[in-house]
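Please predict the structure of the following assembly.
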Amino acid sequence: MGAAALMTMSDDAKAATEWAEHFQGNYRLMTPEEKAEARTRLERRYSAEYGKKVTVDGTEAQPGVLMGYALNVRKCIGCRRCVKACVEENNQSRGKNPGERIEWIQVLRMERGEFATDKMNHGYPEGLGIQVGGNAYTPAGQVLEGQYRYEPEAVPEKDATYMPIACMQCEKPPCVKVCPVRTTYREADGPVVIDYNWCIGCRMCMSACPYWARRINLTNPVLPKEEMNPVTHYLGNRPRMRGVVEKCHWCLQRTRKGRYPACVEVCPVGARKFGNLLDPESEVSLILARKNVFRLKAELNTFPKFFYFYD
Amino acid sequence: MKKLAFHTMILAFCCGMISSAFAQQQQEITCFESRKGASEVVKRDLQPGWPNVKCSPKTGAVLWWGDPFDGTVPMGDMPLLGNVAPGKAVVKPRSEKLAILPMCATACHNGVGPAFNPPTLPKDKKPKPIPTMVGLLPDAQNLQHGRGRIWCLDCHHTTQRNKLVDNFGDPVSIDQPQLLCGKCHGDKMRDWRDGIHGKRIGEWASTGKKRWFTCTECHNPHNVQDGARNRGFVQIAPESPPQLPKGMKDAKYERVHGIAH
Ligand code: SF4
Ligand code: SF4
């Protein structure tokens, strides 16, 4: 009886919200009232769909905050807990079929390399497939294709280092430049976000992003009710639909409420640091002041707010 | 007849409910927060549908905290922490995880006895292997910390064995290992104090409330130089790799088929 009532409500809520969503504008251009209305609509729809009270938050950027992230590449041991914590927090699709499992963080594995005398004449390091010759062409420090799917018994491996990548929240984001419907944009406190409802799924941003950060829901996302995280943000981890692009948004539903992103909290070696770049006392500011820092692909002038460092 | 069937149904239903509740009680999920075997937590609901932790089905590691401050106490005073407001720095007491700790200072090392006043200790600073001790703390038998340059009482208090020791010979709580470790590892201690080394969960603002992970929550002080270690940590099992793209059979695909260019 209860279940039946819930199901009818679900049909109602779904039909009603879908109808209203067709007439919904671009989130960034909505008035505060329209935004609140859109969120309430979604709360009803998600609550019915997932059988529990789902909240869709709309907390805006706070003045005086510019979010920043730093990752200690020397520390990372490649355990992938950040990847899985992100999935738990951000309601990604987790099905079994091709395209149904979405992860925003990728942990790249790099060869440490070895310059042994018996390799003197080995010109073709495995996997690189380019015309090379001599010992100096050892794949040290390179990411071999397919190698971020490493699966050893235990990490860190002797002959590897690891480099996690996800959205770099660029200050000059190429993805924002190419989006034909301007559904992806930089928020005032830094993160680059997506209004999933306005996304047309053209995937321009996916090809524009130099950091392989964006994922598309090619299929209907698979998100079991009991695993769904009911605390969501409109621009953050609310459930997505088929045909829209998604990516890391620095756990907006958490960070706008003051809490660390999920990946920062889970990292067992404490390689991940997050904070306010405008606050000289914050962890990231202290890292920028004290450690050796670099940005990935800095030459592209994307100006990431995600920094790598080592001690 | 119909009524009987109905009653049977109800009975079956109730039994089902009870047995499922029973099964739930039995099936207790324990996972570890930082170091396996030294930081276990039991999964439970803080609110209906809102667990204290979510655990990895593959490795048993905690992946997500429903409440970062669950089970914590305010961190004891630490030098140079003047700018952290009271109650903003909390820790999970280590002493609760160390089952033998309350016994240490009463059962064997009770601080009294002929050899202890004044303490007469072996000149070569080599501990005598006592079977009970070895059995209780196998890690400590082959102590690698300091590569033979330090021994038990460089870190543990001479007469109060449930305490650590600072530079002045005064006891330090086992919940504040940083006061001991910082004696030698000053640079790490400084980075830890500033949030650069080690791990914190909770609020990201520099003035926010955070749960600090103390030294021994992540490092085992007795086997820091474990042979299998790399970068200060013993090796751990990784989480599962990402899904392969459609049509790719394994991660070695490019190696076998070469890369088009
Ligand atoms: S990393 Fe990619 S998705 Fe993120 S802001 Fe930069 S270009 Fe956009
Ligand atoms: S959780 Fe930390 S150590 Fe593990 S892969 Fe992620 S960044 Fe690296």
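Chain B touches chain A through 55 residues (CB under 8 Å). The radius of gyration of chain B is 25 Å.
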